[in-house]
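Model it.
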Amino acid sequence: MIKLIYNYFKLCIKLYTFDKDDVNNVNTLFDQIVDCGSVCIKITQWILPILEMKYKIEYDNVPYWFSKLENLYDNCNYHCDDYTRRVYLDEFNNEFSDKYKMIKVLSSGSMGGCYHIKSIDDDKDFCMKVIHPNIKYEMKILTYLFKIPFFQNIFHKIVPISFEIFFDKFKEQINMIKEANNILQFRENYSKDELILIPKLYAVSSDILIMEYLPSYKLSEVDISDYKKTKLLSILFLFMRNNGLLNFNHGDLHKGNWGINDNKIVIYDFGICWKYSQKKSKHNLKLVDLFDTEYAKDPLLFEKFSTILFELMDHTFDRDDFLKYAKISNEKYELNKLDVKSIYNIVIRYFIERDKIMDYTFFIGIINVLQVNKIMLHYDVVNGRADIEWLNSKRKDLIDICEAYDSFKEYSNYYKDTLQNESIDYNYIQDKITQNLN
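Modeled.
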């Protein structure tokens, strides 16, 4: 306990003296974050999209300090195989080696490690996820530690959400039974969709998941044209938008939690999933619709946005004060291209500077958008121009993908109706889309 608290104090001191241009300083910070354990790593993962937004980091110009910290997504410390075997024995009352053989470690994230394993009986491949040791102990200690005003202030200056709710949600994330239920829900939602791969579930306990083995490559690892990369990212974009219409969202789509397999998108790690109440879901859809219009040229943009935000936040902030702050920030930071990232930057900065608590679900939604925003901007899946001609053309391309593969029915039906209501000529080009993707 003393060591963990000491590590957090060391990290706080390092943050006050941190020099992002000093390589040794960056490496030391990385090591100290890892020493603080899984909770600290998860908080850092959430902070990275905010830092990316703050420092305007572009896809093809990533500084060393940021790329180093990005390793915390899926290259965290590994726990030993002996620990994994002990947990398996405790959870399933059988020796791991009686049923499986270990092939290799696939990745290690903030919550647990993933292994490629094979069945002894039929040599079938599986993926096994095992919660890291000491996480529950860390949670217990940090629940008390974060009641100290010093740590509360630091936490809220970085992540403007309730730390009590953060810890409650964190407990859900380290419950593999909860994650298994999320997997089952996503498999049901996409059971007839051939563009999205969700792993099948084979066995579960509180600390272990055994799933279908679905290998994939990161976008940077595949040797294909930028055009095909754009189409693949469009599938990921459709997945996110379709989830919003289904009101069941994957809440952690950083680059380690999705990949490419044979022109399809594989989705991993379902520990953080979220949905709104029916009323808030309608407001969230209004927010998405606002960004699917020529919003940057709308003189009432901030008025419309602040009204939706006010509802999503349960009226917990002064709407007029936010509206004034947003307009001043827009002029101060010269946000002539009001893309989603710029507007969310204003929101997060407002809640931090006003010492307000942000709705947890809305915050996770922001982080989720920001995690993929950089790469989608680079490949023109989204943009900051808010040009109505571009938006309508892109939307038609997305619907063409839905129709060509009979996928994302909720998105396709919703936006086809929107296009028809806007009297926009719509022509299907299914054969061409299919040919380009294959």
